Amino acid sequence: MAILRLFTIIFLDTGLNIDIIFACLYLAGLWGLFKKSGLAGWWALIPVAREYQLACCAGREDEGRVYSLTALGKIILNVIMVLTNYSAETAAESVSGVLLAVLALVLVIINLVYRMRIVFGLIEVYGVRRRWAWLWLSEYTRWIPALLWGWSTKYKPEWQIEDIRAEMERLATHGSARVMDEGLTVNLKERSVREFFKKKILLRDIHMAIPQGHMVLLLGGSGAGKTTYVNAINGYEKAKAEVMLNGNNMYTHYKRMQYEVGFVPQQEMMRGKDTVLNTLLDAAKLRLPKEVSPDQRRRRVDEVMEIFGLTPVKDNLVEKLSGGQKKRLSIGIEFISNPSLFILDEPDSGLDGVMARELFVQLRKIADTGKIVIVITHTPDRVIDLFDDVIVLAKDSARTGRLAFYGSVDEARAFFGRQKMEEIVKSVNRKEEGGDGLADDFVMKFAEVQHA
What we know:
Number of helices: 18
Shape: globular
CATH topology of the largest domain: Rossmann fold
CATH architecture of the largest domain: 3-Layer(aba) Sandwich
Helix content: 40-55%
Strand content: 5-15%
Order of helices and strands: HHHHHHHHHEEEHEEHEHHHEHEEEHHH
CATH class of the largest domain: Alpha Beta
Strand order of the largest sheet: 6-7-8-3-9-10
Radius of gyration: 27 Å
Number of domains: 2
Number of strands: 10
């Protein structure tokens, strides 16, 4: 009996005999749902994987990861309870029993929350009333909508998984940017990872050429791939791409080219008990080539302190600096190597309008020396006059990061028909994220512009 119960826990996600019939009906319904969505029906029989595939059918792949992990957690806890003869009567007799009960409750709640997010996605896909969601709440009734939607010809999904793949091909831009001898050229075909039973494409078809001396704003909503894109062009996470900086390949000459790229993350990673001078001297030892002499390093540190207005506070402890001074120091650390490409992730985070403006003016001056400066910021409109170009990344219908626009600030306003940068981001964000849901339209529009 124990073996039979373990089998029902693992494969049917239930340990009670009375639930077996309902579980089998539910799995039969999922079989039909998966087939209607263009998936193999047998996915319904695979524990954990079926939860993820159900989320894909609903267009809620991100939620599916959490949903499937909580389903796995529930199965593991149920197995533990069977093997330890756990019962409600004995649960309060030990600390481990109480902790097990609390953990089980947390998993059930999280699982239910994400199940309902997926259910509302299915409701949109099948075009039915939201009242159907009530039936999905209970293990005893969710088989009803699953069977009806899965096997009745009355209910048909508005799209299939294959439709999304076809849409990805339709939106593909197979061109490439001309490689420049001076400047940054990015021809990124694909950046992907293996995740949850299949290949997940994070970025696709991003082609652009950025001249020297340009300050570029990188825009995109949450999950659009801004960080992934930045990591791909600086060589930290290689993609299926050709990234050329001043005629040199970032990937094939990475060790040499890493001195040509400066990246300032959002988080400041500096020791508070060090002085400004010692912080920059340590950075010089790490970021300048080994053949650079100590005297040359010191001269470079003095230059950087002068550029960023840090000379008056060179003997001050980092922890005693103001917010603006800390930001300038964190930028100075990366600027030590005199990079040709300078990337900054929200350098104005935590700064007021005046201090942020001052910081961006300094970045503008750096770009004017012939550097390429790429900046991610969530408050672009207060400093947009300082930028030359705008990159807009957006998630398409397959949740893949795509290039929705690259060009001048004025061209961006004309292309999107919006004056503010925040409005441009809103236009490409998905509707469930508070956006206008026009990502595919603008990705396709820009692809046509590139091919014209």
